[in-house]
Specification:
Radius of gyration of chain B: 19 Å
Low-confidence stretches of chain B: none
Largest sheet of chain B: none
Structural class of chain B: mainly alpha
Oligomer: heterotrimer
Chains: A alpha/beta (240), B mainly alpha (217), C alpha/beta (290)
Number of helices of chain B: 10
Helix content of chain B: over 70%
Strand content of chain A: 25-35%
Helix content of chain A: 25-40%
Distance between the termini of chain B: 46 Å
Distance between the termini of chain A: 30 Å
Largest sheet of chain A: 6 strands, mixed
Number of helices of chain A: 9
Shape of chain B: globular
Mean pLDDT of chain B: 92
């Protein structure tokens, strides 16, 4: 299977400090990769860099075999979708929220009317379609936020700790729904979380970022056994 | 002269001048305030302080400055704009543009900074991003518009100085009030004052209605 | 504490500012029982700077504290009529008489006069220079349709101008060339200069602003152009709260020998000519008033 993303020798700085270093990371098409590590380790920096919201100091990112820099930022971003920790819904109806990304892409009214209700339905929030965003509960809002991203049918879905603000039962249900949706659509996904259990539930492989550096990538079993890195071992030990 | 044709003409002129001045301020102040709120460039915070200072410009100082520009002896004297409604509009734009700019910048800076990242992350272009942010901040932006209008409809110093309070040409409600007070016609002055208040109220009421209709139901 | 030091600094600065604002202490005079005196007068006396000479002298001699309110003659008379002023210094003889007849004024003395002139651009498009009388000049302006700026504010000057128009065959009202500024003399002169129009002005204000104006005196010396000032005390029988003693003291002061001499000299050093002519020893009839 071919790689959708290939990163080599990446250095991203925030201010004067290195925020993330990645020697090599590749993500296969259709794969769900979890990015784990302690808070402030540089996980979100990876996502923001892949969304071209941060500019790397050096390094090469190939997207679908092409240097990502070849396209304009906007054209590139229209191939991906980003979901952040807070739903960050716009002050309008649920339907309009879910339609916003399509509208940015200039998608016609008819197509929007076809796709948006379908995705609201798949995320179980179709009945809230006319509700204003401000009236939703945390779980409902995050479902709308996911629908807003998935309706775009992105080549790459970037999820930045989307469930960390939710209570455990809500989170468990949403996680299960997300897992089945992703395996159904085979959307290439990078799922940032600081919760290893959550990571193991959704993702095949995990990338461990500690101290602003990508340390290890692999399946949970491989990581636990083949750990020659004390920091990684210590981080994983909290969970396994 | 209460409620006759002349009062109507003065009232209409006041409204036209101040509405046009507010509109122009919005046209300049909205993009400029947005740039100040979202942009990253050297001198940004200096400009922002300038604008915030400008929000309190005394109209009479603006009037003096604009008059000096427009007098025949001034650098723009050849335009022959002094003592015309256009001159008042220019002065009023100078007064209300910092108000609109400053409040626009404040409104946008009050939004969650991650909203911008989220919008880009959904594929918004720069224009689409700015448009969505304006939409999100529409309530404080309408408040900025109201403040801009309020700063010019009630202003007398600049209108007097650059407009000249010329009957049928540049006499507006505020300058007419000063004139009638000077004549000792306090009853007419008060009537005009009430009229001015009523108009200001009606305009703000309309804008508030639009604003609240856009608020969360 | 940083705060305490800052507050101290603030208070000190504030106190210094206050001290700087306080007027230099005048020669102490026996303070009258009711020292506050409100003088309502026309903008022309204020703008010319004459009051800045007379009022401090009066205050120093008598201990009264004068609050000068400079407004149009109409408003000044109204303030007297409504008891909002104690003493008036105004120049609208007909309206003054009406005020006296209605009983709102108690004493009325002749103080001084200055004169009006008609000014306009040097090019003189209506050709009024050399006109025999002011009425003839206005007629020419109307015939030529040249810009004329009227104050339109019911001031003494405005009333004088209207009475002159009344003697012509022209009706300027509503004419495009008849521009109503609705402002004081200084602002109206500026507008006349900018629009290169004619206007009727008192000599004092014209001379005081001359440097900034592109206007020249075209008609002067007409007997109809005299501007006569009277001082009027507000009648305490109508308004018991008014400060009649102070008002009378002021009236006596401005008609007294010292003030009269000052009035005659005022402006000579700056403009080379007197702006006002003392008249306390004359009667209305001497000045052509009945």
């Amino acid at each position: 299977m071919s790689n959708l993303i290939e990163i080599r020798d990446l250095l991203v700085k925030r201010g004067d400090h290195p925020a993330l270093e990645v020697d090599h990371l590749s993500i296969e098409k259709g794969e769900v990769l979890a990015v784990v590590g302690p808070n402030g380790a540089g996980k979100s920096t990876l996502l923001l860099t892949l969304a071209r919201l941060l500019r790397p100091e050096r390094g090469r990112i190939l997207f679908d075999g092409q240097p990502a820099a070849r396209e304009s930022d906007t054209a590139y971003r229209r191939r991906i979708a980003l979901v952040m920790q807070d739903p960050l819904l716009f002050d309008t109806s649920v339907f309009e929220n879910a339609a916003s990304g399509l509208k940015f892409r200039g998608v016609g009214r008819d197509e929007i009317a076809r796709h948006v209700p379908a995705w609201l339905e798949r995320l179980g929030v179709a009945h809230l379609s006319k509700r204003r965003a401000g009236q939703l509960s945390g779980g409902e809002a995050q479902r709308v936020s996911l629908a807003r991203a998935l309706v775009l049918e992105p080549e790459l879905l970037l999820l930045d700790e989307p469930f960390s603000a939710l209570d455990p039962p809500t989170r468990a249900r949403l996680l299960a729904d997300l897992k089945s949706l992703l395996s159904e659509t085979r959307t290439t996904t990078i799922f940032v979380t600081h919760d290893l259990a959550e990571a193991g539930q959704v993702a095949g492989r995990m990338a461990v970022i500690i101290g602003n550096r990508l340390r290890r990538v692999g399946r949970p079993g491989e990581l636990a056994s083949a750990s020659g890195d004390r920091d990684v071992a210590e981080f994983l030990n909290h969970y396994f | 002269m209460i409620f006759d044709a002349e009062v109507f003409q003065i009232t209409l002129l006041s409204l036209q001048i101040s509405a046009l001045a507010t509109g122009l301020s919005l046209l300049i102040g909205l993009p400029f305030g947005t740039l100040l709120a979202l942009g990253k460039f050297p001198g940004r915070s200096f400009l922002l302080s300038m604008v915030n200072t400008g929000m309190g410009l005394p109209p009479v100082v603006v009037g003096l400055f604009v008059a000096m520009m427009l007098w025949r002896s001034g650098p723009l004297g050849d335009l022959k704009l002094i003592y015309t409604p256009t001159a008042i509009i220019i002065a009023q734009v100078v007064i209300s543009f910092p108000v609109v700019t400053g409040l626009t910048a404040a409104a946008l800076q009050a939004l969650d900074p991650r909203l911008r990242l989220q919008l880009y992350g959904l594929g918004a272009s720069l224009t689409q991003m700015v448009w969505m942010l304006w939409r999100e901040a529409r309530l404080p932006l309408l408040a900025a518009l109201m403040a801009g209008f309020g700063s010019v409809i009630s202003e007398v110093g600049a209108s007097m100085m650059v407009g000249g309070n010329i009957r049928y040409q540049t006499r507006v409600l505020t300058t007419a009030i000063v004139l009638e007070t000077g004549k000792g016609h306090f009853d007419i002055a008060i009537a005009l004052g009430v009229l001015l208040l009523a108009i200001t109220f009606l305009v703000n009421w309309a804008l508030t209605w639009i604003q609240q209709r856009g608020a969360r139901r | 504490m940083k705060y305490a030091r800052f507050t101290f600094l603030l208070v000190t600065v504030f106190a210094l500012l206050l001290a700087a604002c306080a007027p230099a202490a005048p020669e102490p005079a026996p303070a009258p029982a009711n020292p506050a005196l409100i003088l309502a007068t026309t903008t022309s006396t204020q703008d010319s700077g004459l009051l800045d000479v007379l009022v401090p002298l009066f205050e120093g001699q008598t201990g009264y504290v004068v609050q000068t309110v400079a407004v149009g003659t109409g408003a000044a008379l109204k303030m007297g009529e409504e008891g909002n002023a104690d003493v008036l210094l105004v120049h609208a003889p007909a309206a003054e008489k009406a005020l006296m007849e209605a009983g709102f004024g108690k004493d009325r003395f002749l103080v001084m006069h200055n004169d009006f002139v008609i000014v306009g651009p040097a090019s003189d498009p209506a050709g009024i220079k050399g006109a025999g009388t002011s009425v003839e000049a206005l007629q020419k302006i109307a015939d030529a349709g040249a810009n004329f700026i009227t104050r339109g504010d019911d001031s003494g000057t405005h009333k004088m101008e209207l009475s002159l128009w009344g003697k012509t065959a022209a009706d300027p009202n509503g004419q495009a060339w008849y521009v109503d500024s609705g402002q004081g003399m200084g602002a109206t002169l500026t507008i006349a200069s900018e629009k290169q129009g004619y206007t009727l002005t008192d000599r004092a204000t014209y001379l005081a602003n001359k440097e900034n104006l592109e206007l020249e005196i075209l008609v002067e010396g007409d007997a109809a152009l005299l501007n006569v000032y009277h001082v009027i005390t507000v009648n305490p029988d109508k308004w018991p709260k008014s400060n009649y003693e102070g008002a009378l003291a002021f009236a006596n002061f401005v008609t007294g020998a010292e003030a009269q001499e000052l009035i005659g000299e005022f402006g000579v050093d700056q403009f080379g000519q007197s702006l006002f002519f003392p008249d306390a020893d004359k009667t209305d009839a001497d000045l052509g008033l009945e």
